[in-house]
Specification:
alpha+beta, Cathepsin B, Chain A, 20 strands, six-stranded antiparallel β-sheet
């Protein structure tokens, strides 16, 4: 299975196909999503795929019909004509979303989550806290070493992409990074792929760029003028022409480059219930009625000041079956230090009023998942997920990653 096997059809889902392209680089993840124990031998006319759905892996079963118009595939199609894993995988995910129409417009982070059940991080160049180019290059290096899935989306404004060959507001997959020697300096390059299978970059280091004539013959072999949608571009140009980069891995290792660390993962299902456990934000008088999870952190890396040793993910669950049709609430996470000697069980308003939270939360709106990374000294803490408006009924999945063994328990 290869990123060159397929091309996009008439469904506007480049976000999904770019994620699928990135998935082909990770054989273990691909075999987790596309079980290998099925073929056209002893064939029953059905196929099954596996996606991580709100805390657990589930089988999605489909029949073998694929939609066509005028004898041409409506959706993703096989370039060679006889490989069907890509259109069948797309059909299975369309079933998860609700329909092919529900796949129009989305985010590669949704597909990444369902492919891996892991952790993703978005770098948005339009945000005030956008990473520096140096920081992003370091992160991309870490991500590739961790065998992460990486996608990017181009700017939605046409004037930013004029005469570049890039498509407006289109998701692409990042398929490689490297440094090449040019004269006496090094140039950072990023390899990008358009899931359409055509239309690439026309600037420096593109397939037809004369920059390739200025490097050593061994480096020149990296350039393939194949018109297959994949191309190289200089890292600085990449940062200028793409709005957002999304990176996903099974563990948070790519965030700080601590590749030897074995993260411990704990997953809990939870709910906010209006009038019972949906207390609203921290300055509401009913805040203490929100769900609470007490965690014991045992160690932090003293050799690395500010070491991020706890990651908390808050993922909203749909009340209906399909994620794309769900109402997304405005939610946040707060963590409070629990002093030694504090009684076990739930903490009341008398605890939260005098105590401040550990770190100010990032404010999210219209995000299905909130992810926060913390540097916590050894001790006990309480995690409080909440809706910014009180009396909201909704379900969630709380996932906590810790670098060392930690004890966590819901407070009844």
């Amino acid at each position: 299975m290869s990123r060159f096997d397929f091309a996009q059809g008439k469904v506007g889902n480049s976000w999904f196909l770019s994620a699928m392209s990135a998935l082909t680089f990770q054989k273990n993840l691909m075999e987790q999503v596309v079980p290998m124990d099925q073929s056209f031998e002893d064939y029953a006319g059905i196929f099954h795929f596996r996606f991580w759905r709100f805390g657990k892996w589930v089988d999605v079963v489909i029949d073998d019909y694929l939609p066509t118009i005028n004898k041409q595939f409506l959706s993703v199609y096989s370039k060679c004509g006889n490989e069907f894993w890509a259109p069948l995988l797309e059909k299975a995910y369309a079933k998860v979303c609700g329909s092919y129409a529900d796949m129009r417009g989305g985010s590669s982070s949704d597909a990444f989550k369902d492919f891996t059940g892991g952790v993703y991080h978005c770098h948005n160049f339009a945000m005030d806290n956008a990473p520096s180019h140096e920081e992003l290059w370091l992160t991309l290096n870490r991500a590739t070493k961790c065998k992460s899935l990486i996608c990017c989306v181009s700017w939605p404004e046409a004037d930013k992409l004029a005469n570049t060959g890039l498509l407006v507001g289109r998701y692409y997959s990042v398929t490689g990074i490297t440094e090449v020697k040019l004269n006496d300096s090094k140039v950072r390059l990023v390899r990008v792929m358009n899931p359409c299978g055509t239309r690439g970059w026309s600037g420096k280091w593109s397939d037809k760029s004369d920059m390739w004539d200025k490097v050593e013959p061994e480096v020149r072999k990296m350039c393939f003028d194949r018109d297959d949608g994949e191309f190289w571009m200089e890292f600085e140009d990449f940062c200028s022409h793409f709005l957002k980069v999304t990176i996903c891995s099974e563990t948070p290792n790519f965030l700080d480059g601590d590749f030897k660390c074995q993260w411990k993962c704990m997953i809990y299902d939870g709910s906010w219930v209006a009038g019972i456990s949906a207390g609203g934000k921290w300055n509401d008088p009913t805040f203490a009625t929100n769900p609470q999870y007490r965690i014991q952190v045992s160690v932090i890396d003293k050799e690395e000041p500010g070491d991020k040793n706890v990651l908390v993910s808050l993922l909203q669950k749909p009340l209906q079956e399909h994620r794309r049709q769900m109402k997304i609430e405005d939610v946040l996470i707060l963590i409070f230090k629990v002093p030694p000697g504090t009684p076990q069980g739930r903490l009341g308003s008398d605890f939260f009023k005098p105590n401040s939270f550990v770190e100010a939360p990032t404010h999210y709106r219209d995000f299905i998942e909130v992810i926060e990374l913390y540097s916590l000294e050894p001790g006990e803490y309480v995690i409080v997920p909440f809706t910014c408006k009180p009396n909201i009924t909704a379900d969630f999945v709380l996932t906590v990653y810790t670098k060392a063994d930690a004890k966590i328990r819901p407070c009844q």
